[in-house]
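Hello Y.,

Per our agreement to keep a running log of every chain we model this quarter, I'm adding this entry. I've kept the format consistent with earlier entries: sequence first, then predicted structure.
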Amino acid sequence: MILRFIWNELAGEDDDFVAILVTFNSILQMGFYASYAIFYIDVVPACTGPPSPKAVSYSVVAQAIAIFLGSSIAYTNLMSTVCLYLAQ
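Predicted structure for the entry above:
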């Protein structure tokens, strides 16, 4: 909820621009967070000690992030649609 206020302030109270910013942020998180996870799970431990016995693939991490972020985006879109329908 706090992030919503921050995005709204950055967008100058423009709801359409806020939606674009939030969507863009979610896409960036899905793309880059998986890379960070692979780096810290596979690369850093290999450099600092014995390698991890289980390797984690990029696709598994990206899929988990897409489910986590995608479900919240889908729920938000559903609630927005319901609220707009009920407001008419």
